[in-house]
Amino acid sequence: xxxxxxxxxxxxxxxxxxxxxxxxxxxxxxxxxxxxxxxxxxxxxxxxxxxxxxxxxxxxxxxxxxxxxxxxxxxxxxxxxxxxxxxxxxxxxxxxxxxxxxxxxxxxxxxxxx
Amino acid sequence: xxxxxxxxxxxxxxxxxxxxxxxxxxxxxxxxxxxxxxxxxxxxxxxxxxxxxxxxxxxxxxxxxxxxxxxxxxxxxxxxxxxxxxxxxxxxxxxxxxxxxxxxxxxxxxxxxxx
Lengths: 114, 115
Fold this sequence. Notes:
The structure holds two protein chains of two kinds.
Chain A (H helix, E strand, L loop, with lengths): L2 E3 L4 E5 L4 E3 L2 E3 L6 E6 L5 E7 L5 E3 L5 E5 L4 E6 L8 E9 L5 E4 L3 E6 L1
Parallel strand pairs in A: 2-12
Antiparallel strand pairs in A: 1-4, 3-9, 5-6, 5-10, 7-8, 8-9, 10-11, 10-12
Chain B lengths: L4 E3 L2 E4 L5 E6 L6 E7 L5 E8 L2 E5 L7 E4 L6 E5 L8 E8 L9 E2 L3 E5 L1
Parallel strand pairs in B: 2-11
Antiparallel strand pairs in B: 1-3, 3-8, 4-5, 4-9, 5-6, 7-8, 9-10, 9-11
């Protein structure tokens, strides 16, 4: 079965500093990986995805993610965090064998302090 | 980003009552999904739906649950007889195609509270 792990429940970072949110995955077959962000009282907003090709994927709001096959990781990064980046971040993997449903990690809360 | 809308935003119901959660999809996005998130837990897949048929469902999606597109537009999730443990945030998601590379766009969710 496919699975996703987000080892940190919360990440605290000062505004202007680099932000990294960790994600590791376990899949059989090719990994199709996604990052979503959830702001308070809002739904899940798509940030970026890895399908194939370049290991560095660029997404919305200045976020990027690095796919590392040998470490089975797909960490989300932002070079300079903003207070407005404070939110809940979810990593997900597509389960191709099960109707392409998304399997989510537990989420990481990011708090960016001014 | 394309927008999926959901109504109501918050539904409070008594145990044993039926509830219907509604989702208005993105135009030309014909693949539908329902997920739920119990407070403090992971987002979990419930069901996928295409061409008026369920494509895949999880073990959570038992006989109490059903989905349909009654008017060819809105997509609904019905819970026939709600239980306390059905209290959760329910998200509708919508994709243009069903392939593994296609992005699922999520609605803002309906918070269901069963008393």
